[in-house]
Structure formats: structure tokens, C-alpha cells
Amino acid sequence: xxxxxxxxxxxxxxxxxxxxxxxxxxxxxxxxxxxxxxxxxxxxxxxxxxxxxxxxxxxxxxxxxxxxxxxxxxxxxxxxxxxxxxxxxxxxxxxxxxxxxxxxxxxxxxxxxxxxxxxxxxxxxxxxxxxxxxxxxxxxxxxxxxxxxxxxxxxxxxxxxxxxxxxxxxxxxxxxxxxxxxxxxxxxxxxxxxxxxxxxxxxxxxxxxxxxx
Length: 213
Known about the structure:
Blueprint: E1 13-16, E2 24-27, H1 37-46, E3 61-62, H2 67-77, E4 81-85, E5 91-96, H3 97-109, H4 131-134, E6 136-137, E7 142-143, H5 148-156, E8 162-166, E9 172-177, H6 178-188, H7 199-212
Parallel strand pairs: 3-4, 7-8
Antiparallel strand pairs: 1-2, 4-5, 5-6, 8-9
């Protein structure tokens, strides 16, 4: 069986991020601790997803939001998906950019108007699709206290692209994505990677949800 050769700690390279914002490679010092995979795994087992999930976007999309409104929110906030809630704030599904593209191409490929209209008549679509019509039903959601290790394994399985995170009362708190996990892993390796969104918004949202219990 092939075995990876052991590396001299004094020769192992690591990535650093200087003030210029560019990445460079340097050699690790002999006395510098190098994170081991098992150490990261142990930390991930103790880290709740509430400390990792995305916060820098509107946390809730109304079920009656038009696809145009959803698309505008995605573009303005540079996100690819968001949870959809009902009037009581309960999670009912997730809308992703892929869902919006699917709706767009279905419209392009479908003949929506009657053929052979008489002169002077035209057809107009009365209503566009709304979020509840294009979303994927919420098949899974995890509590905010779920260990990151378990959530990451679920994302890695490929069965879901993002996971809604809820409070103890079922209120949507955020969305955990694969990119969130990658950001966390990168920070665990010592690189300076900013959190998604403003932490002040996250803290305010946590306080709001806590007051609803």
C-alpha cells in the first residue's frame, strides 16, 4: 500500500497573506505548530454551525416574493441561495440561483400565448412565478447547535447544496453552505479570511431570535 512520505516540519511550506493582499509561500519554522487534520476535526466537532453559517444577506424570503424580486436580492447581496418562510416565519423551502435559471429557461422554451391571434389582439402574461412555486421543499434543516463536523459531512455527501439553520423554536437563523465550511477551514489553517457578512448583523439577529423564545 502506498504511504505518504513524512515531511520535515522545518521544510513544510505554508501560505501566508501579507498586508498587500497577495498570497505568498514561506517555510514553516521548526518551532511553529502545524495544524493536523485530527486537530481540525476535533475543533469542528466542538464548533456550532451558528458560528460558521452565512449572515450577510436577507435571512428570509417571503413565499410570495416574485422571481424578479428574488433575483434582485441575490444579485445585490452576491448570494446563490436563500431560505423561504411562510407568514409565521417557519421554513418551507430554499430558492437557489439554479431554480431561477430553470424558471427562466422554462419560460423561454414554452409558448405562453395563443397562436394565430387576430389583428389588433395580443397576449400578456398576467403573473410571474413566485418563490413558493420555484423553490425546492425544505427536506432538511439543522439546529444552530449542530456541530460543524456533522453538517460538513452532510454537505460533502452531495445530497444538499446548502442547509438551513434554525433556532429551537423553528425560526430560520441562517444558511450553511459549502463555501462557509471552506472559509472556516481556511481560517483554521491560519489564513486571514473575513467572515461572510457583518458580525454585528449576526449578533443583532441572535438577540432578536432569543427574545422570541
